[in-house]
## 1
Amino acid sequence: MSIGRLLAVAAIALAVACGSSTGSGGNPPPPPPPPPPPAGGHTTTISVANNSFSPTPDTIPAGNITFHWAANAITHNVTWQTGPAPFPMNSATQVGGDPDYVATLKVGTYTYHCTVHPVVMTGTIVVQ
Ligand SMILES: [Cu+2]
């Protein structure tokens, strides 16, 4: 390689190095703050009563969520709509006094509803 070519390569390397060091020269910007937790509840037992699920949205760690039917005669169920596949098995359609329904959830966001009252009874669970 000739001296002239070596100098040209060195000049390019210097230009690249200088180009990457321009700027304010101060400290790097601080990392962004963590996102706030989702609004809603934080419980592993959801009440099924009065044509609603409560709380919703709910935020839980990965694991089990329990649905508890309040004591009344209106039938409701828990039917999964979206979330990490495969979905848990849906609950039975049942009334207050029937057994609790427990589902095991993975990290992700699930949506569900009651097929008896699909418009008003909807819920979201965020699993972290
Ligand atoms: Cu219902």
## 2
Amino acid sequence: MRSLWLVAGVLLVAACSGSDTSASETTNTTSSPPTTSVATTTLPAATTTAPPTTTSTPTTTTTTTTTTTTTTTQPPPELLGVELALHAAIDRPLAIAAPRGDTRLFVAQREGTIEIVTDDGEIQEEPFLDLSDRVWANGIEQGLLGLAFHPEYAENGRLFVYFTDENNDTRLAEYTVGTDPAFADAESYRELLLFDQPTERHNGGMLEFGPDGFLYVSVGDGGDGGHNGQKSDTLFGTILRIDVDGGEPYLAPPDNPFVAGGGAPEVWGYGLRNPWRFSIDHETGLMYIADVGQQDWEEINVVALDAGGANFGWAYREGSRCFSSPECEETETVLPVVEYGHQEGCSVTGGYVYRGSAIPEVAGTYFYSDWCSGWIRSFRYDNGTAVDLEEWTALQPGQVNTFGVDGFGELYIGTWSGEVWKLVPVRAES
Ligand SMILES: [Ca+2]
């Protein structure tokens, strides 16, 4: 099966050559956003965006006799490749999420609104939630940065946001849905954390619930010159793990690594510079952390959720290399499973392990990008090692702010220039 879609990928590349833009040509951190045409002209004609499962769910025929049940599953038509279908045009999407099983896609827009996109790509006229009077989005790493729905959102209507406020500080807050499920209750603001940020850089911003029901929050070192990285007793340079179902405003779970000492009780892992995007693969219990580098190296770390307390190395190390300290060699740190130098990009944008149903051929594959170069790469994590490393040269989304998944595990990509792309299969006629 694998060789099948590799060949298919080549076919797609061939179809697109000529208008393909070399990813490595663009490495400027302050480069202006690419125009929409970069993505649209380099792609095969976008398919019509279908509801999450219509093109892909294997058809199942069940035959029942008096003594046995026989199930015949028909495989989907041959996969020729994957492509990006334009799902919606939304200015500066920074977070893409949905409650589990919900057919709507929720897109957090940098200036502070959360837009609802229906499964046929229609954008709800009024935003689900408008936080623009609370959100400050001046610096390039500021704005409405994170969005997560409570695992029991269908029952309790609780959602969480992470944003920059008018003082250049960041806040983690909760809202609840209103009586109309199309809108959150704007008055329901409940603050969980306020970070007095030292600078407007490295403010993290990713939110995701783990299979343990706890909320994980990436914070970043605050751009303080790296001094916070190795401090497990500050919330900067960390990923937090908190219980939003207990305490006021939250609890540190009793099995957090530093509850008994050695660090702040909320901290799950530290030694991070700017973990702008991380994701949790619920099927394996692994967290994939893409940590943005300073000078030369971008990195992705993969760690089991039950391996709390890990030191990811910053600022002793940048990627796997010693960076700033003679103590580097003596300090035990988690090393990245994938890293790349700044000749190939400038700022890693972490994605997700694909667990949707439309493209079972790529199940278990982790996709990621780089904000400057705009390529899409992938690997599979196999017992401590990244294997099957790929660059999907036919996929040219533009400048990737974020990845996201919908309520059924399908994968989306949000770009600085305002596209929300959906990863879709290209299949032979059945
Ligand atoms: Ca590191």
